[in-house]
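This entry is set out below.
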Amino acid sequence: MSKIQSQIFQNWTFKACEDQEWLPAQVPGCVHTDLLKLDKIPDPFYGTNEKEIQWIDKKDWEYRTVFDINEDLLSQEHLEIVFDGLDTYADVYVNDQHVLSADNMFRVWNVDVKSIVKASGNVLRIRFQSPIQEDLPKLEKLGYALPASNDQSDVGELGDKRVSIFARKAPYHYGWDWGPRFVTSGIWREARLEGWSEVRINDVFIRQNEVTASAASLTAIVEVETFNPIETIIRIVTDGQTWEQAASLQAGVQTIEIPVSINEPKLWWSRGLGDPHMYSFVTEVLKGEQVLADLTVKTGLRSIRLVRDKDEAGASFYFELNGVAVFAKGANHIPNDSFITEITAERYRHEIVSAAESNMNMLRVWGGGIYEEDVFYELCDEYGLLVWQDFMFACSMYPGDEAFLNSVRHEAIDNVKRLRNHPSIVLWCGNNEIDSAWAHYIEDGGWGWKKDYNAEQREKIWADYEAIFHELLPEVVEAYAPGVDYWPSSPLVSLTNDEKQHANPSTSEGDIHYWGVWHSVEPFENYNVYVGRFMSEYGFQSFPEYKSVRKYAEEEDLALESEVMLAHQKNGAGNRLIKQYMDMYMHEPKDFPSFLYMSQVLQAEAMKTAIEAHRRRKPYCMGTLYWQMNDCWPVASWAGMDYFGNWKALQYYAKRSFSDVLVSVDGTKEDRTDVYLISDQLHPVEGQLHVRLIGFDGTVYREEEHAVSLESNSGKQVLTLNNTDWLQGRDAAATLLRLELKRKGHADIVQEHYFAPSKDLALKQAAIQVTEVQESDGSYVVLESDTLAKQVWISTEAEGVFSDNFFDLIPSIPVKVKFTSREGLQHAGAASETGAIEVRSMADFIKL
C-alpha cells in the first residue's frame, strides 16, 4: 500500500546571521518568542518593553536543523519539503543547495528534494531576510508612500516610512490602534518532509450544488497526483453510503468530479437554530482492492446566500441559511496573540465557547490579521458559529505590480482551498475599510488620503485596488469556492462606480461601520439613530480588570497618563475618550482601580445600547457585530474579553442582549417607554410580560401583567408605558422598571429600565449577602441585597465565568448564578470550584 508518509522536522537552532553561536529554537515559532524563551529579551508585553526590542526586525535570521530519513520514507518516489507557513522573506537550502525562495507568509511552500537528500546528516537551513530591509527599497522605487494609517513606523524607528503594504504578512504585526508593533520572522506553521509513490490525493472539495431538507446534490472534486498513468476506481464513502467512479489517471495533477447525492440530509445549522451536524467524507483511490491513497474531509451540508434584494428602504443585507433569514449576532475577531504560535488549541476553544455561551452566531475574521488556524474553523463548525472571512487586507492601499498580484493570487487560492469545506464560512470579503477610506468617487470623501496624490497617481492607485478586490479575489472565490458569496470591501453599499458606492452611517444598503460614538464623541443615544441593514463594526473601549493590568504595570504606573498606561493604549486619544465619556454618563470613580471597573461598565452600557437598537430594527437591520471579541496582548481596547481570556462586563452584557428571545426597552422618548419583544427562534413566542415599578429600597409601587405573543424569527413593539402615569411624581433617580417575560418551561427573560441617567441615580452602599451552594451540576452563588446594587461584579480566584455577572440586584429579588471554571467551560463535567469570592457593586467604586 502506498500512502503519504511524513516526518516533522525537529531539533531546530537559530541565530542572527551576523552571529556565530547557534541557539535552541522552537518550531513553529518566531525569533521574538525564541529570544524570549532564552531570556535574551525582556517580556515584550510588560511596561514599555515594546520599544526596547524593535531592533529584531532590522536583522536577518537563520534557522537550521539536521535530519535523518528512515529507509521506508527515503524509498518513496517523491520526497517533498513542505512549509505550511514561512514568515515571510526566506531562502531555503538543503545540503547547501538553494531549493526555494518564499515571499508570502500566507502561502504553503513545497519543493521536491528527492535528488538532494540522503539517509543521514541532511542539513536544512532557512535564511529569513529582514522584512524591513527587504521592503524599504520598494518604497523608494515607488517614489511615493501608499496610505497605511495603522502602520506604527514611528514605534519601529522608521519615521514616516511605512512598508507594511509591500509584504504579504499579517498587517497587525506592524502595529494597530489596539496592538503593538512586533514584525516577526520565523517558521510559523508546521515544517515536514513528505514522501509518496504512485498516487496521492492532494485535495477533496465537497461542492454543494443544491441542499434542501429533502436532498443534497453534491459533487466531490478530487485533486489527484500520479507518477505514471494508471487505471483506478475512486470511491467516496460517508454515513454508510458509497459512490464509485472509474478514472484513467494521467501523469501529473488532475481533478476528478464525482456526483454525490444524499436523501433527507442532516443539515448544518448555526447556534440557536439547530444542530451543526457534520459529515465525514472518505475518499479512496483503488487499484483492484488495494487502497493506493486516501483522504478524509469533514463538512456540514447547508444552503447559504447573502440576500441583497431591493426594497422600499433600499436593499436588504442578510444571510439566509437553509432558507431561514438569520439575524447575525456576534463580534469581530482579531488574532489571539501578537505571536501567533503562542495561541494554543485551548485558547482557541475558550474564545469560541465564550462566543457560543454569549449567544453569538457569527464572528468576522477581520482582514488585518491572519487566515486562522484550522482548529479555529473546526470549532466554529462544531459550535455553529457563522464566519465572515476577510482576505488579509486592511486600512491601506496596496501595490498592483505583476509580482504582487501573482503572490496574492497564490495566497488566495491556497487559503480558499484550505478552508472551503468549512460550513461555517458564509462570506469571503475582500478587505476591511479600504473602499470607504479611499472613497474614490467622492472628491473630499474618505479619510483624507487622496489629497496627498495628483490625479494620475490617484487613478493608478485605484486601478491597482480594483485589480485585486474587484477582479482577482472574486475570480478565485468563484473558481474555488462556488456557492459562497464575495463582498469586495467592508463597509460598502454596492459596486456602482459612483459616489453611491461608498457606505456612510446613513446608507440603507450594504453594511455599515459606525464610529460616530467613540471617534467623533457622539452620544450613546446616536446608536438608535444610525442603524443600517447590517452593522458590521462599531465599538467602545475599556480597560482590562485590575489583576490583568497588574501583569503589565506596577502600582506606581496606575495613572491614566502614565507612560505605561499610554504604551498600552494604542488609540491615541483612547484614555482621554474613556474619561470624557465617563464624565458624561457615570459617577466619578474614587480611584484608579475603580476607574478600571467603571470603564468596563461604561463600555458594556454603550454596546447594550447599540446591540438592542439594532435588534429592535429587525428585519430592517439583520446583523450586529461589535468591535471586538478579543485581544492580542494586554491592553486598553474595544475587546469584550481581555488578553488572558477574562470576560469583561461587555461579554456578560452581550450574552443578555444577544439572547435568542429578548425583551428590550427603548427609553429615548422623554414621555414614554416602549417595550419590544424580539425572537430569533423558529417557533412562536407566547407568555406573560410582568411589569413592576420598584423603588431602590425594594418597594413595589405598581405591577401589571400583559399577555404577549410573537411570530417566529421576528420582533415587534408589545407595550408602551406613559412615564408620567407610571411614576406618579416619584423620584425618577430612585425608581426602576423591571420587566420579566414568563413562559411555561422556560427561564424568565429579565430586563431593567431606569428613568434617569446612570450618573444621576441615587445609589447607596449595599449590604450584599452571598451564599455559596454546591449542587449536583456544579457551584452556585445566591446573592441578596438590602438596597439596589447596580452592576454587581462577582470576582473569584479561579479562572472561569459566571452564568451572569455585572447585573443589578434588587431588594427581595435574589439572584442565583452558576460558576463554571475555564476548564469546565470547555469540558462538561470538569470541576468548577470558585475559590475565594469577592462581590462589589457600583457604589463601592464611586465617590458617594
